[in-house]
Amino acid sequence: MSRSLQTLRRLALPAALAAALLAGLQAARATEAPVSLAAVALGEADYQRVNDALVQHHVVPRYQVMAAAMAALDAAAGRYCAAPGAGTLAALRAADEAAVDAWMGVQHLHFGPVELFMRSYRLYFWPQGRGRIAQATGELLAAADPASLEEQHFRNASTAIQGLPALEVLLYGEGAEETPSAFRCALLTRIACNMKAMAADIVEEWQGGKIDFARTVAEPGPDNPYFESAEEATLAFFQSLYNGLELISDARLKPVAGASIEKAKPALAESRAPGRSLRNVVVNLEALQGLYEGEGGPGLGDLAVRSGADPKLEPLLRKAFRLTVETAKGIEPPLAEAVVDPKRRKAVDKLLTQLVAIKQILRSRFSPATGLPIGFNAMDGD
């Protein structure tokens, strides 16, 4: 523990800098209080309390929403292929929107059953090389080989053609408005059925089954293959929070915004065709806010309160998340246009600044106050 804290001291930036970066937060005085490392007194019971609450109220309910959304998507795909038309296509696109929302609500959770069998990549292969998914999907459609859609074969196929991004190509790309061929519909329903199965398996493995990952989190110890201590399990949640913020800033926003309007690259915006680039950002942020604040039980922020090391920290971060979500919601979509519009661009830049500031506060204050190291495996773009 002491070695981790020494490392954090070397990495930590002044708390006042984080406050200065957090545009619109107006909490400079709250960041001036120094962190008292001597006050840290968190024990295994403190970490376990948060872990159990997050599994029960954050993780499992969100994966259940995703499983229900994927099942609804699969049903909508079946109805569309049984009777192709404008009405069934609109209904299928709406079901797809709900499924993407559900995925964005759990995308930050980079541990547990979703990481088995490459499920996270198979559900949402992104970021991607430019045009890779469209190319892979186009080649599959051109070959029109029924054997490629056999269940076992498809599960082992390229991740680029198995998930939501490939479905987006089919629903919004070339030929989407035309009457689908038999193979196009077969591919569409295979993708939907494949995602439905993965989502159901994830829920089952969190709640029981062969893995029972909820029990894995609840019973850390020397015989636990994942977590020797409750603190290690909490660290997985904390890294999900920090890395989730980095994904938004470094993958969803910075490549599109560039360093200036002149260097913006609107074509790199995620989910351009359905026009939900900013929607993805908002849903991601709200999920991270729920992870920090808790949803029906204590969240990670509870540890900052219980440590007593930095009394102003928890309300500062709570306010920071609220204002950052408000900024994201206030940007007029689509993102591809906002980054090259001088008036709308200001809000995008403000959002990026706020994201950097939250990360700095987590690194320089929350991490030492709670004894949870950031680690060195995240994208470090600031």
UniProtKB/TrEMBL annotation:
| Segments forming domain Imelysin-like | 60-360
GO annotation, cellular component aspect: cell envelope
What top-level branch of life does the organism fall under? Bacteria
Cellular location(s): Cell envelope
- The entry's keywords: Signal
Keyword Amino-acid biosynthesis set for record: no
Q: What is this protein called?
A: Imelysin-like domain-containing protein
What lineage does the source organism belong to?
A: Bacteria, Pseudomonadati, Pseudomonadota, Alphaproteobacteria, Rhodospirillales
